[in-house]
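One chain shown below:
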Amino acid sequence: MDVSDLVIFEAVSRHGSMNRAAAELNTVQSNVTARIRALEDELGVSLFHRHARGVSTTPSGRRILPLVARLTKLLADVRTAARDDGAPHGSLHLGSLETTTALRLSPLLTQFARTYPEVRLAVTTGTTRKLLDDVINCRLEGAFVAGPVTHPDLHQETVFTEELVLVTSRQFRGLDGLKAIADLKTIVFQAGCSYRQRLDSLLADMGVITAKPLEFGSLEAIISCVSAGIGVTLLPKGIVEPAWQAGRIAVHELPSNAGHVATLFVRRHDGFVSSAMTAFLQLTRSRANELPLASLEPAAV
């Protein structure tokens, strides 16, 4: 079995298209099609359903996908380990929550880039659910996610602790008034966001009935909608400070058991920890206590 055939299989499965996979792999569609058919003949199963819109992965294909990801990552780790001497270098692809990137990582990434210019660092943002899936399936080498996390394949360590606050318009006066709002709207990131899940649980525990959430893809869009009085959201205290200081929003502190969340760095137990990864984690740990959240005054209630 040729590993390059498995790489092609993974690309086709991810794109749902032979043509788009060929473009990514800098080859022609006929070559991709032929290699997939040869792999199917060797395995004795169909890996894709062909249809007018492209292809979809069969149950057999979905079962081998995680193994393919681990195998290709292992081979990449072999190449990296063989050359990983001297100063940190090479590529490092990490993931992070958008809030963590905005609040915590900007100065850290700047310092890392200056200290280790030979490392090609890329950071992809996403929800906790998406980032965990990408780390588990070897698409990312590690990621900053919101805890708690329980998965047998993952190593995790707490790097930051965030204080969460309920964010509302300035006209809103306190948590006690939530129940009086008919079909309260929540302004949130897409499904899979841990802050969204915490907000849903918080409101449910308070007996607050909510309407269908409004989903947005950026922090600024969420804060703007909350400022306009469209709904409420739950975010780290430090991330909303500029809007609070500018008088755009109000913040409401939560009980300690609901208002704190650990930000974890997760990576696969079986992944090779390169010198670039080691240097990044050492810098993260050293800077963790130097990056305090800004202090906000309690909101009026």
About this structure: The chain is about 45% helix and 20% strand.
